[in-house]
Amino acid sequence: MDYILGIDQGGTKTAAVVMNTLGEILGSGFGGAGNYAYTGMSQAMASVREAAECALDQAGLSFADVAILSAGLSGADWPEEYDLLRQALHDATGIDDIRVYNDSIIAMRGGTDKPYGAVICMGTGLNVAIRNQDGETFIYGYYIDGDHQGAGALGHLALRAVIAADTGILAPTALTSMVLREYQAETVEELVRLYAAGRLTGRLKLLAPQVLEIAAGGDPVADHLVRQFGVGVAQYVTAGLRRYGMLDLDVDVVCSGSVLKTKNRALREVIRTTIQAECRQARMVDAIYEPVVGAAVLALDDRIKPEQRESVRKQVHASCQQMNLIRIPDARSE
Asked: Of 28, 155, 198, 279, which residue is the least packed, with the fewest Cβ within 10 Å?
């Protein structure tokens, strides 16, 4: 039997799973962080080996047993990087059949069984990707505006709103007391001084959950901020679907990342309604499985016959439950 090695590598860790062609996950493992652009290729590949060896040991297999290595990697952004990473993975593992994806694409496959769709990955930053029926992808990556970069951008917009309210450009807002409290500042002037000194930037992402709560509570300034932010995020999805002629399709828009997993649904609702205004059949769905599962299943998709798909899908789900690879047990769609 052939075996698939799935890899998910990001800025905090590297995950690996070994899967057979029936959809059964036989082993999983973890290694260190490894975006090669920041850590260097040597460390990135060492982390891949660490995670892969752990998964293979658990499965009772070796690299020689692996038919396909399917990897979603941070740092796979530009076309030339895919060839670079494929060669590095081959050198590190000896595996010949290697598929490299941007990590947003494996997150998409972890949330939908469709071969096409969209994904919004919103944590500290933002990435959006589209995949059409032919497997072509468009990944926004560095094309995304700074004002839309996830929790960090939302916190920065809140800070700007507080400053604008203090000058009278915007109306008074509950954001002011929240931001002052978070940064232990007495006045907005003190806050501006801290910001000018570069002492707030790294912590702005921590404001995002409270910004959403204040918006949901009816604060006009916060509500407008969140709505404008949501419309800005949604435009990447609709533009990508338009690019590939997919606006009339039944499309799953997979939601991944901490900002879209909060109980507060205001931002998610703005994104949903904005997308559905152009793509009426679009559904926003939660990513069910950890992205590393999506990496393995992308390779499995090419190996199974249509009549096997349902039994394989059930086996994948059962294995993920056993291996603690379910991301959101009560995943929802809208």
From this structure: 198
